[in-house]
Amino acid sequence: MPNGGSDCCGTCRFNAANAGRRHLGLLPSKDFDSFRNESYCEIRGLDIADPFYTYCANNTTRLKRGVAVPLGPVYVHEWVSVVNPETGNQGPVSNRRPWVDAPDTEEVRAQLLRFLKVPELLSDAYPFYGKDLVREVVDELERLRESRAIPILENIAHDLREKGEEWDGIQDAIERIQYAVEAGPEEPSGTPGTS
Asked: N or C end of the chain: which has fewer CB within 10 A?
């Protein structure tokens, strides 16, 4: 059985093919082809063509609380060729690239802001591939140009300074979100091959 990691859609309880249960393999009653054909993300309304090489932060291997509000994009597996700077040898490296963004709804935004205010709600137990979940939240708030994130981040930075602590990258996160908010809505992109 193919397996792109324990945090793939093939193991997720939000995959309709898993009937609401988290699995680390196929149900005994299903073969691989029927499992793949039945794979559908219930929280994103998305057909999953390759469930063992498709991923998102909502998988309960990563987010133990089983949050049913889409968190960040859906990623797919790809092999990329890279050159090792020490040896000069070129070889394939496993990579994940964004495939489908999370929907832009008030429910999604509210959940992201809640996670930003209370990052303890996130439990990233599988960090080997993909980003830390707090970073995923910040990236999504930047993508959505969510101005309500700025005062939350500023309060976090202030509280940390008062305790003599620091969160690497918090100022960068504030600046990225401010820049995205000030830039306004994205310009529609043209169809590939047209001008």
From this structure: C
Q: Could you tell me the two tokens for 17?
A: 């093919």
> Strand, helix or coil at 192?
coil
Question: Cα separations (Å) of 122 from 80, 100, 117, 140?
Answer: 30, 22, 11, 15
Does residue 24 fall inside a structural domain? yes
First to last CA, the chain: 45
- Helices then strands, each counted (H, E), the chain: 5, 5
Is residue 37 situated within a structural domain? Answer: yes
Rg of the Cα atoms in the chain: 19
| Short-list 140, 2, 132, CA closest to 69 | 140
53-109 per-position pLDDT tens digit: 999 988 877 777 778 899 899 999 888 888 888 888 888 777 889 999 999 999 999
State how many domains the chain has.
Answer: 1
Q: Is residue 36 part of a domain?
A: yes
Domain that holds residue 81: 9-102
In terms of Cβ atoms closer than 10 Å to its own Cβ (0-12, 13-18, 19+), residue 186 is: exposed
DSSP string computed for 30-97: --HHHHHHH-EETTTTEE-SSGGGEE-TTSTTTBTT---S--S-EEEEEEEEEE-TTT--EEEEEEEE
